Amino acid sequence: MKVLVTGASGLLGGHLVAALSGRHQVVGIDRHPWWGDRPADVRVADLGAPGVIADMVPALGPDVVIHCAGLVSVDACERDPALAYACNAGVTRTLARALRPECLFVYIATDGIFNGDAPFATEEQLPCPRTVYGRSKLQGEWEVALACRRHLIVRTNFYGWSSGRKQTAAEWLYRVLESGEAATLFTDFFYTPMYVVDFVERLQFLIEGGHRGIVHLAGRDRVSKAQFATLLAEAAGLSLEHVRWGSVEDAPLAAARPKDMSLSSEHFRRLTGANLPGCRAGLRRFVADRHCPLSARVEGRRELGRARRQVLRAPRG
Ligand SMILES: NC(=O)c1ccc[n+]([C@@H]2O[C@H](COP(=O)([O-])OP(=O)(O)OC[C@H]3O[C@@H](n4cnc5c(N)ncnc54)[C@H](OP(=O)(O)O)[C@@H]3O)[C@@H](O)[C@H]2O)c1
Questions:
Q1: SS3 category, 100
Q2: Whose CA is nearest to atom 15 of ligand 1?
C-alpha cells in the first residue's frame, strides 16, 4: 500500500514511519525534518499553508492516510482557540476532502473528547469535551466522517521517546525522577496510557484487518498520574523521594482537565483478538528502549507482532 503519514516527525508519526517503511511504500509530511536512524521519505511542509495539501496530496495518490499532525498541547489550544481549530479541524477537513474516495483516512483522535466523569469511556458514550483541544479534535473526527466514506477514527493516549525536539510528558517524568528534581504528581487524574510502540503494532492490526469506524485503542490499566510515576520508578529503578502527591484541582493549568480520561478498548479487543498490554509491561518496554535507535524499537516489536498475530488470530471459542 502507498501510505501517507502526516506529523511524520512527531512522536507517533516517527514510530509509524519507521514501523511501516519495510512493509509499505511510505511518505511522510511534517514541518520538521525526519529524525530516525534509517532514511525515510519525509517531506518538510506546513499542511496549514495555502495550497500545500492541494499541491502535494493528490500527486502522492495514497491508499491510506494516517493523520497524526495536530496542535497537541492542551494549554496552547486553550490560549489560542483559533489556531487549535485551524490545525485540528481545518487542516483535517482540507486533507479529508483532497483524497480519492477509495483512500482510507485514519484519524488519530483523543480521549479528551469525553467530560471525564466516569471511567473507561466506550465508543457508544456521547462526547462532551471540556477543553478547546478536545472540541477541536472532535470537530476533526466529524470532518473525517463527513468527507471520507472509508475512515478509521482511533481514540487513544500514548507515551514514548520523541526526537528530543519537544519533550513528551513521559520523557519529562523520567528526567524528573532521574535527576531527583521536585515535582507534584496528581493522584486524582486517571487515564489509560499505552506505550507508543505497542500502539503502532496494534494500529496496524486495525488498518490491515480492514476495520472501520470509531475504535478506542489505549492501555488496559486505568492509572492515575501518580500510579504511572510509581510504576515508571519501579521499572527504571528510580526513586520517588522528591515527588509530592497532589490534586489536579490545585494545579495552575490554562485548561481545566477532565479528571478521568480512561478509555475502554474492549471493542478493539473483540474486533482484532489482540491483547492489550498492562501499564507495568508497557513501561518496562519504554525503559528498555531508552537508548535504542528508532528502527530497533519498532523492528523488535515487529517480530513480536508477527508471532503474536499467529497466536491472537487463532479462531476463538
Ligand atoms: N500524545 C498522546 O497521548 C495523544 C493522545 C490522543 C491523541 N493524540 C493525537 O495523536 C497525534 C500525534 O500526536 P503526537 O503526540 O505524536 O504529537 P507530536 O509529537 O506533536 O507530532 C505531531 C507532529 O505534527 C507536526 N505538525 C503539526 N501541525 C502541522 C502542520 N500544519 N503541518 C505539518 N506538520 C504539522 C508537529 O509539529 P509541531 O511540533 O511544530 O506542532 C509535530 O512534528 C495528534 O493528532 C494528537 O492529537 C495524541
A1: coil
A2: 11
Return the domain boundaries, the chain: 2-312
Q: Cell numbers for 204, please give them.
A: 496496524
286-306, pLDDT tens digit by residue? 999 999 999 999 986 555 555
Task: Please give the single-letter amino acid code of residue 313.
Answer: R
Q: What separation in Å is there between the alpha carbon of 71 and the centre of ligand 1?
A: 6
Query: Distance from the CA of 37 to the center of ligand 1, in angstroms?
Result: 20
Is the domain covering 2-312 a CATH 3.60.21.10 domain?
no
Instruction: State the DSSP code for 256.
Output: P
Contact 150, 212 (CB under 8 A): yes
For residue range 147-191, what is the model confidence (pLDDT) as tens digits? 999 999 999 999 999 999 999 999 999 999 999 999 999 999 999
- Ligand 1 centroid–CA 68 distance in Å is 5
**Nine-digit cell string for 1:** 500500500
